[in-house]
Amino acid sequence: MVSVRDVLGVRALGLRGVHVSRADADIRWVATSELSDPTPFLEGAEVLLTTGIETRDWDQEWDDYVRRLARTPVAAVGFGIGLTHERTPDALIAACREHDVNLFEVPRRTTFVAISRHVARLLSEQESAATQAALQTQRRLISAATRRDPATAVVTALAQALDGAACLMAPDGRALTGPVGPRRDEFPLDDATADVHRLQTRGGRSAATQSRPALSLSVQPIGLRGRPSAYLATMGPVRLSEAERDALTTAVAVLGLVDEQRRSRTTTRRHLHSRAIELLTGNDSRTAQLILEIDAPAIVIPKQMRFLRASGGESEIGDAVTTLEQRGILAGIYADELCAVSLPAQAEATGEALVASGLHVGVGAAVSSDDGASGYRTAGLALAQTAPTAALVVWDRVVSDGPLGLIDAQRAEAFAESWLHGLNAEQLETLRSFLRHHGSHLKVAEELGVHRNTVRNRLDAIEALLPGQLDDPQTRVSAWIALQSLPSERVNP
Q1: pLDDT at 493
Q2: In the prediction, which pLDDT does 477 show?
Q3: How many other CB atoms sit within 10 Å of the CB of residue 60?
């Protein structure tokens, strides 16, 4: 905008400042009026030019006149001398000082038209300069998008255009780029983080703005579709100029396009990774590695590996894939699950990290890269054993726990109660000893301290209550599982 200072600085006009306390006041236009109350015809920020034709006999009236102008408010009053008044009235000067209204004197030789023409020229020149500056800023922002790190380049260019600071932030409030810019040390990072968290809870694509005495903070969502992938936080003047607002709008749009390109590349890369995982599950590690080498930098499939399979919400799985990619771990969506391939030593820690993000995870057996089918299958079996109280299951532990590790505890207990129904504590102890000594009546008799005939009689009674014969291996396996799954009060009555 053109200021009062700019107009007073035009030597050709010969204007003299009488009371100029707000030289930086913006001028929107020039108005000429000899009315005793011109305010109904003003919009504010005008220079009001008058010769005081209707005010020849005024004294105290000047106070009300200036008070009304101060409420409008005008940028300044230009009082023409040499016609109605030989000099600027003292009462007008006093009123302008009282109500803090700029006042300058217009000499007889300077026409009001000349003042209007000069202001119009200044406004036109400034508008042209602002347009050129805005175009230059937009060109710099668009050019920045072609750099190797486009997001950082765009954010930096915007911060310079605002003569402030800017920061690109992740949805969780982390700073991805910056703060950068001439005033980066003043950037209120904690406030920006709090704004991002508030916007996340609101959902949608809303923005946030804070105004302070010395600066303004704006947080804008980035992304053309779906959830915002990032937020642009900018610190600039309390009142942004039109060019600065255009720069901010352009930066948000350019960052959205950069994000769209990144998403497109990410989608392509994830398709490649999912295809490589599919090939690994079919024991074709050679083709899987060739697929991965299309991407740069390519992930190298380890010679020894473990599969991880995880289930959970769509957003949690998407975030987990991103996290694994950042760690250089092959991961993708395969058969509606998150599937990843890790070095054996890193698999359990990786699984714990996935559990922390809200997923259930199964870690498969350690296998060679040419035996992916086995690793994928055991990871699925481990995932099937997960529960709310055990969100991470490692196949090695399932194996060490034996067959009971594959049976749901509640189902196993119900099976034991039904299969051993009718057996008393003495019979349960005899059956347990019989299985422990592989059917030897003599060893059972020695352990229990009874005669072999007593053992034979007890086993006949037990067999009559069971659904099978004790010399049948299937019956013995079922008996062992049932005894292992009995509630503690039945085991130690």
Answers
A1: 44
A2: 86
A3: 8
* Structure confidence at residue 111 (pLDDT): 94
What one-letter code names the amino acid at 131?
A: T
Residue 169 near residue 233 (C-beta atoms within 8 A): yes
The pTM is what?
0.50
pLDDT at position 489: 54
Averages of pLDDT over runs of 10 residues in the chain (493 residues) are: 90 94 93 94 94 88 95 95 92 96 95 94 82 76 83 91 91 89 91 89 77 82 81 87 83 87 82 92 92 80 95 89 90 92 94 93 95 95 88 89 67 84 89 89 90 91 89 88 74 47
- Which residue reads 């990774």 in tokens? 273
Q: Which of 32, 34, 23 is nearest to 115 (CA)?
A: 32
Model pLDDT, residue 338: 95
Preceding omega of 388 cis (within 30 degrees of 0): no
Q: Note whether 70 and 78 are within 8 A (CB).
A: no
User: Between β-strands 46-50 and 29-32, what pairing exists: parallel, antiparallel or unpaired?
Assistant: parallel
Instruction: Output the 3-class SS for the chain.
Output: CEEHHHHHCCHHHCCEEEECCCCCCEECEEEECCCCCCHHHCCCCEEEEECCHHHCCCCCHHHHHHHHHHHCCCCEEEEECCCCCCCCCHHHHHHHHHHCCCEEEECCCCCHHHHHHHHHHHHHHHHHHHHHHHHHHHHHHHHHCCCCCHHHHHHHHHHHHHCCEEEEECCCCCEEEEEECCCHHHCCHHHHHHHHHHHHHHCCCCCEEEECCCCEEEEEEECCCCCCCEEEEEEECCCCCHHHHHHHHHHHHHHHHHHHHHHHHHHHHHHHHHHHHHHHHCCCHHHHHHHHCCCCCCCCCCCEEEEEEEECCHHHHHHHHHHHHHCCCEEEEECCEEEEEECHHHHHHHHHHHHHCCCEEEECCCEEHHHHHHHHHHHHHHHHCCECCECEEEHHHHHHHCHHHHCCHHHHHHHHHHHCCCCCHHHHHHHHHHHHCCCCHHHHHHHHCCCHHHHHHHHHHHHHHCCCCCCCHHHHHHHHHHHHHCCHHHHCC
Q: Is residue 102 a contact partner of residue 77, using CB atoms and an 8 Å limit?
A: yes
* Nearest Cα residue to 48 out of 65, 66, 33, 27: 33
CA dist., res. 171 & res. 199, Å (int):
9
Report whether the peptide linkage leading into residue 344 is cis, meaning its omega lies within 30 degrees of zero: no
Q: Taking the chain, what is the end-to-end CA distance rounded to the nearest angstrom?
A: 93
